[in-house]
Amino acid sequence: MKFKYIALTLILLTFAFLLSGCDDAKSVDQFSYVIALGLDKGETNKLKLSLQFPISGGSEGGSSSQSSSSVTYSVECISIEDGINQMNNYINKPINLAHCGVIVFSEELAEEGLSTFAYTLTNTIEVRPDTNIIVSRSPAEKYLKNATSPLEEVSARYYDIILSSSEFTGYTDDMTLSDFFYSLNDTTKEPSAILGNVSTSQTSKTNSSDETNSYKAGDTPISPSESIENSGIAVFKGDKLVGELDNIETMCYLMVTNRLDKCTITIPNPFQESETIDLQLTLRNNTKNTVYSLDTNPYVEVQVSMNAQILSMTENAEYLKDENLPILEEAVNSYLEKIISSYLYKTSQEYHSDISGFAKEAIKKFLTWDQWISYNWHDNYQNCFFKVTVDTTIRSGRLFIDA
User: Could you tell me if 356 and 347 are in contact, meaning their C-beta atoms sit under 8 angstroms apart?
Assistant: First the structure.
């Protein structure tokens, strides 16, 4: 009997503890969850902080020109923490950044340097290290207010979906806060970020390259306009934005850095003048990058191995014949070698920024850390010479062979 009384007492105490709760505990409804954060240069203060909230997440009401699934508030402030504190007072709920899917910086702000913001956000315990970093060619506030889609409600999941397109297009890359922060403190790689913009009818019609079918964010000729688009890469030298890569150059970056899943390219048809051929590319083997010379003009070799599948199909096409595949493979090799070389010289001679991380190979040539630091690779990268070789294997064009 004594044992039963003891067991009963323990059970009652357990229930009392579970039902009592904690005085300092807060329910989900007591927070305002941010799904995206934007930073612009301020007009009346140092910064303009924009925070996007899901309507269903319990944020306060208010009129907005964007989708009914979200609302964006902006505030002029001297720092991120100052802006959040002002917004806390306005919304009357503690703001929580645990579900923030993207952090958007305006180009204007990025050109002045992002190190202070990167350190602050990395030090904020609520912000996830895998939060994506976007540099917007339009104001960050405008980017957030145009984050709408008829196919998906605007939420943290929405940003995950639109950024996952890089896996099958090769038009951008998955670049996160932790990637950016570590690159700021890395001697072997310069920082980079996703390039974003708001697409408009004007940019869609005028800012494209018809010869290479290359576009940057906001330039793609897709209607309707006035929606966000992520295409290309923002290139940094240290913490400052120094340039942009378009979608074709981004594919080259992914090939060189072994980050390519798949992409589609269009090349001139070697068998029929004025026609083109579409191919889907994947990496056959890891790209081999080798740094040979470390004098004032470093010499870098890049060896790329690709698999290609023909997507264009026309009746009696010459490239459908097995004996013509080597000719097509050589045409693909020549095209890729040209655009990859152009990408590499653009990053070295124009931007002076080793976002490809060739320094990870160069550092192996030095015996001591002091020798490596003294060499100053990031300044010598602009003097690099490159040799690019591509070896492509094309699947036969016969229909239904993979069925």
Answer: yes
* Burial readout 16-48 (b: 16 or more C-beta within 10 A, e: otherwise): eeeeeeeeeeeeeeebbbbbbbbbbebeeeebb
Sign of CA dihedral 118, 123, 126, 130: positive
- Type of residue numbered 227: S
Report pTM: 0.82
Q: What are the residue ranges spanned by the domains of the chain?
A: 29-245, 249-403
CA separation for the pair 333, 325 (Å, rounded): 12
Contact 365, 292 (CB under 8 A): no
Residues listed for the chain: 403
Q: Where are the alpha helices (DSSP H) in 170-261?
A: 177-184, 201-206, 247-256
Query: Mean pLDDT, to the nearest integer, of 344-368?
Result: 95
CA distances from 259 to 206, 210, 287, 305, 343 (A): 31, 26, 10, 13, 16
Cα of 216 vs its chain's centroid, Å: 13
Upper half-sphere CA count for residue 342 (Cβ side, 13 Å): 14
Q: Give the residues across from 230 on adjacent strands.
A: 196
Given a cut of 90, whether residue 243 has pLDDT beyond it is yes
Nearest to 287 by CA among 235, 348, 360, 238: 360
Residue 384, φ and ψ in degrees, nearest 5: -70, 145
Q: How many CB atoms lie within 10 A of CB 273?
A: 7
DSSP state of 365: G
Rounded alpha-carbon distances, angstroms, from residue 79 to 48, 51, 98, 116: 9, 14, 19, 10
Q: Give the integer Cα–Cα distance in Å for 134 and 38.
A: 9
State the architecture of 249-403 in CATH terms. 2-Layer Sandwich (3.30)
- Which one of 62-71, 216-225, 274-283 scores highest in mean pLDDT? 274-283
**Comparison of pLDDT for 29 and 101, the residue scoring more:** 101
Query: Exposed, middle or buried by CB within 10 Å (0-12, 13-18, 19+), for 63?
Result: exposed
Tell how strand 32-33 and strand 132-136 pair up: unpaired
